[in-house]
Amino acid sequence: MANKIQMKTPLVDIDGDEMTRIIWAMVKEQLLLPYIELKTEYYDLGLKKRDETEDRITIEAADAIKKYGVGVKCATITPNAARVKEYNLKQQWKSPNGTIRAILDGTVFRAPIMVKNIKPAVRNWTKPIHIGRHAYGDVYKNAEYRVPGPGMAELVFTDEQGTEVRETIEKFDGPGIIQGIHNLDASIKSFAEACFAYALDQKVDLWFGAKDTISKTYDSNFKRIFDDVYDAEYRAKFEAAGIEYFYTLIDDAVARIMRSEGGMLWALKNYDGDVMSDMLASAYGSLAMMTSVLVSPHGYFEYEAAHGTVQKHYYKYLKGEKTSTNSVALIFAWTGALRKRGELDSIPELGQFADMLEAATLQTIEDGVMTGDLAKLAEPAAQRIVYTEEFIAEVRRRLETSVA
Ligand code: NAP
Ligand code: MG
To answer: Which residue puts its alpha carbon closest to atom 13 of ligand 1?
Structure first.
């Protein structure tokens, strides 16, 4: 293109590992650099670099997102014992996503990327169902043990003055199990804020379901905080945007979602979100056909793919074998970030470019040209099953046409 699109504020470019690292470079090289004078601040979160910097690079990357507002992240290895050996690591570094999430105080939103020739398993889901999962507390930060035999189980809270509040859980006649969970008003409030902000940004209704009829204090607290945030900050904005917020029981929400056409944001408590996001991803096709964005209530955005580093494909790649890895989620991470940067900096060309690149990507698949993972699901059957680099070249060809 004769005149490349100019940027104002740098985008925080966070590189990662394995097959996704290979694709990350291809996407920039083939699909972005020919059209945009890319202004980025680059952070290499490849495992080697994290080890070299004692993981400081991860914190620096999160701080850069706080400074500039928008980041885009490649998939990264969360090391386990096998990775410590494979990469000869100084220690088993924490999940970069967990570290970044803790610093940005965010909620993760996911939505399926839909194409005509991949049909959702639920026929009436013609629009994407967005999910917002609370990522703090409940059963993920519990205390639990096995009760060996008869005895008394109580819930005890001791305040700073030493005053105790006690509640009987159960008088056990025999062996059983017991569990204590918690959550924090501050965390629930930032979850609610992020959901309202996302729904408004996407112009979709917000649904929230919990079980306040049974859990009259715990789940009712979630409901109350959502109501408070809505009344104080969002009711007028939602009305102006023509969207609505409603709360219903979680089981009613599930039943209604199944009969809906999609097109809403579904806010879910931590466990519900864990279960429902995997169900939705598989019902809509694949993790490589999902967008994922971390939205912080302070107005920071981090775009990423929902899948991992695709390790098995990378080992094939290292042996010089051909791979057919789906790059759609990585492409959409970049388009999401560029569109948001364009919005914040009033550069409409960036948003238009993101729209064109997304359209070229979807068109490629709808033309029947796709990677192996999608070919298994396509209806009608794929015309051509292509390798990783061929898919990107096919997108480039279509993008050239629309840019011209
Ligand atoms: P994965 O990378 O998501 O891959 C699991 C399997 O799903 C692959 O073997 C492949 O199936 C299929 N798949 C996933 N993405 C695909 C794509 N783009 N195109 C085609 N097929 C795709 O998960 P994993 O193998 O469990 O994890 C690998 C590494 O990723 C781990 O070290 C983990 O820590 C990391 N991880 C990172 C993130 C993140 O940074 N956001 C998230 C999850 C996992 P086939 O082999 O059948 O083709
Ligand atoms: Mg899960």
So the answer is: 310
Measured from the CB, is residue 107 less than 6 Å from ligand 1?
A: no
Ligand 1 mean position, distance from CA 309 (Å):
5
- Which of 350, 333, 299, 355 is CA-nearest to residue 8? 350
Please give the distance, rounded to the nearest whole angstrom, from the Cα atom of residue 110 to the centre of ligand 2.
13
Instruction: Judge if the beta carbon of residue 57 lies within 6 A of ligand 1.
Output: no
Query: How far is ligand 2, taken at its centre, from the CA of residue 283, in Å?
Result: 14
| Beta strands 290-295 and 107-112, pairing class | antiparallel
Ligand 1 contact, 99 CB (< 6 A): no
> What is 26-73 written as a DSSP string?
HIIIIIITTTEE--EEEEE--HHHHHHTTTHHHHHHHHHHHHHSEEEE
Per the CB < 8 A criterion, the answer to whether 115 and 366 are in contact is yes
Rounded Cα–Cα distance for residues 141 and 184 (Å)? 12
Q: pTM (2 decimals)?
A: 0.88
pLDDT of 2 reads 61
Contact 294, 134 (CB under 8 A): no
CATH of 1-118+286-404, one of 1.20.1250.20, 3.40.50.300, 3.40.50.10540, 3.40.718.10: 3.40.718.10
pLDDT band, very low/low/confident/very high, at 1 (cuts 50, 70, 90) = low
- Kindly give the distance from the C-alpha atom of residue 275 to the centroid of ligand 2, in angstroms, as a whole number: 6
- Specify the range with the lowest mean pLDDT, choosing from 65-79, 238-252, 295-309: 295-309
What does 205-245 look like in DSSP terms, one character per residue?
EEEEEE-TTTSTTHHHHHHHHHHHHIIIIIHHHHHHHT--E
Q: Is the CB of 324 under 6 A from ligand 1?
A: no
Which residue ranges make up each domain of the chain? 1-118+286-404, 120-135+184-284, 143-180
Mean pLDDT confidence for 191-208: 94
Least confident range of 112-121, 295-304, 325-334, 335-344: 295-304
CA distances from 117 to 287, 363, 383, 390 (A): 16, 11, 11, 20
Task: Please state the atom number of ligand 1 nearest to the C-alpha of residue 304.
Answer: 41
User: What value does the mean pLDDT of the chain take?
Assistant: 95
